[in-house]
Give the backbone structure.
Amino acid sequence: MAGEVWTIGKLLKWTEDYFTKAGLDTPRLDGEVLLCHVLNKERIHLYVHFDQPLTKEELARYKACIKERVQHKPVAYIVGHKDFMGLEFKVNEGTLIPRPDTEILVEAVISRLKTGMDNLGTIADIGTGSGAICLSLLNYLPDLKAATVDISPGAIEVAKENAERLGLSDRVEFFQGDMLEPIKDRKFSAIVSNPPYIPEGDIPGLESDVKDYEPISALVAGPDGLDFYRRLVAEAGELIADDGFLALEIGINQAESLMALGQEHGWARCELIKDLAGIDRVVILWKQK
């Protein structure tokens, strides 16, 4: 890159070709997000300023980002944030990166809280990570309150920062601890979780973006991927109000096992929600009245 004049348009084309050869799945998008980060601009700026040259300092920062990305470091960790439910969340390598699939869980919870309860009360978010699930719910349900739990003190700090930046700190409590333990003396209108659900044996087959950078403790759940579900399904009922529910994101081919667990532990009924690809993605277990 040295010695050449690199405009935004030229740089994006070069990056797309380079990332494609490196085997990255979304080469154009990755280049755009990284360049927006370096320039501190929105993506629309790139398209209306195609001929804008970069300074030496901007080019050096962008080159550093490219080096990290071709090592398969996720873009969200390079830029330090990820969009989710129309909001921006700080993330780092101590927190799982929020996925679009998880928006299905959030939307399902919003619709059921809106239509099924006069008093939204307080929900609990177990394994909160960056706080994306819990804080999205609070953002779109102004009368809702929340308690969040994560075993990682670092994740709790990130979630607190996100709550502060989104102006939601006054409606959320943070607890550091193991699953339901820190809140077992409370009652909630709903408990929500996107727990670890990948079987141990599947880790070697994951993309390097995931297995080499994201926290394994937030991904893996024993030999069959069900360890955390077993605990939640068995224990959450005592903490949920009679008309409340437990909402869980699930992995591929786990729906049948979750429904069986729900029946085993006396949940009244089970809802199954598919993602846009038609894959079972969310299970909602309703409390026995």
Notes: The beta strands are 81-84, 87-90, 122-126, 145-150, 172-176, 188-193, 240-249, 269-274, 280-286.
